[in-house]
Amino acid sequence: MKKIVHLFFLVPFIVNALNLQDWISLYVGGTSGQLVAYGNVGLLILGSFLIIKLKGSPLGTPGTWAVFFAVHYSLSILASILYNNPANFGYTLVNIVFYFSFLLYLKRLVDLSFIQTYFTIVFSIASICLIFLWNMQLDLDYFSSDISWGLDRASGLYGDANNACLVSIISYVFLKFTDFGNLPFKSLIKLILTLLISYSVILTFSTTGYLVFVFVVILCNYKYLSKRNILASMFALPLLYLIIINLTWLTAGLNLNERQQSKIVNFENIFSFKFDQIDNSGRFEHIDNVIGKLYENPFFGHGFDFGLNHLTHNTYLNIWLESGIIGLLVLIVVLAIYFSRAIKVEKKTKYFSLAILFAVSIFMLSLQTVINQPYIMVVLTYVGVLIDKGLIKKNDERFS
């Protein structure tokens, strides 16, 4: 029975993480895609009922998201009613079901080493699919369009290059911290997967992604951050810096189109401190369009989907627009709790958690589809469970 219960959680996760419902809708039909989405929710609810009576550890760190959801949704619903802003609660409920179901699952039933490997495989598949779709010039958003001119950026399974880049970076982090046990040729397999995932990040041409990936690679290779290696790197860093600030010249022979070149120039400008020359892809204009609304009601917001409908491309701003400054502050407090607790655990868990948290937190500045994505919330829940486990282990060692 237990093996079957695992499927009630693992199947919905892979379906959601690989965005299969959208691809099924595209090839089979919208009704089929909806049935898949409803099926996911049904499996998770059924699985939750089957394990809810099992003994589990306290909610702890991942439980802080429940506080955020309670505050954010309460204020958003109130604002939607007061300002007569229509709201679509369907997708929101899917996210909530995923979060609470996996909170129960990870706290009660699952072997964390198994789920680490499972998540690594799922996200690695997503990164490899990005490369295949790029080579086939397939894009979810341009499926019915004439793209004989060629795609500018790879968006993988998600129809959004930045979203795809975040998934590839998460895939890289999971891969670096997963052991794979006694798998034959595991070192070679990990090397090949690392190269493929890194290539998938490059194909997204995401300025935010490139910047995040540099720091995530450093965090994931913390074992090499000894005093001796840091001192030795002082001689290599100037060379690396020269490469970065001359990327335009170095990539001149790659036949990149205008938009791809602009992304390379963006990344180069960040490290050249030419911030006034960075192309923000119209994000500042989107913010300018809603700043007046923000000033109209900064404390309680305008209700569900308000930020999403105005395409702010900023999760923090979305939360502020929807549930006011109170909702935003609660979100910041939740992230602060995660970061503060992550730095207190042993090194492997600490750097894994910090790499995930850093990637998600920075991408929320340029993406509005982060914490409203069920698979991202599952990852954050898993990180919270690992942090709590690390804190318990540390306290046990201190008092033993």
What's the helix and strand layout?
Blueprint: H1 2-17, H2 20-27, H3 30-51, H4 64-82, H5 90-108, H6 112-135, H7 161-176, H8 186-203, H9 207-220, H10 227-244, H11 247-250, H12 258-271, H13 283-296, H14 306-309, H15 315-342, H16 347-363, H17 374-399
Structure overview:
The protein has 400 residues and is an all-alpha fold. It contains 17 helices and no strands. The chain has helices at residues 2-17, 20-27, 30-51, 64-82, 90-108, 112-135, 161-176, 186-203, 207-220, 227-244, 247-250, 258-271, 283-296, 306-309, 315-342, 347-363, 374-399. Helix 1 packs across helix 17 (374-399) and helix 7 runs parallel beside helix 9 (207-220). The longest helix is centred in the C-terminal third of the chain and has 28 residues, at 315-342. The chain is globular. The protein starts with a helix and ends with a helix. The mean pLDDT is 83. Pfam families: Wzy_C (PF04932). InterPro entries: O-antigen_ligase-rel_domated, WaaL-like. The chain crosses the membrane at residues 33-52, 64-83, 89-106, 118-136, 191-218, 230-252, 319-339, 351-369, 375-392.
